[in-house]
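User: Hey, my collaborator sent me this sequence without any context and asked if I could get a structure. I don't really work with proteins. Can you help?
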Amino acid sequence: MQRSSLILALSLVLSACVSAPVVLDGSNKVRFQTYTPSKHEYEFVGEISCSRGGDYRKHETNVEYCRTELKNKAYKLGANIIVLNTVTGGCPNCVIMYGNAFKSK
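Assistant: No problem. I've predicted the 3D structure and written it out in structure-token form, which is a compact way to encode the shape of the chain:
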């Protein structure tokens, strides 16, 4: 019985480490803003989204993880600005974010 408890505890610890998003080099240059940038200076490159929650983490932690994931996705598209369209959640710690990614012309 002790061995089963130890394996379960170890599995939970390892799953916590695996599910945290890795910050990609260069994604720190991507920024969030509240308004759509000028069409003369930026071009739309895609919609991005993230969904986190239904786990043991705090809501704030899932928000942080989603922001990191969105920055990584935007960076992969060559974007440097994210305009969030929607931030929702269903469960107490659930976070769903949708946004548009833009890059400088």
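In plain terms: Residues 8-18 have pLDDT under 50 and may be disordered. You can pass these tokens on to your collaborator as they are.
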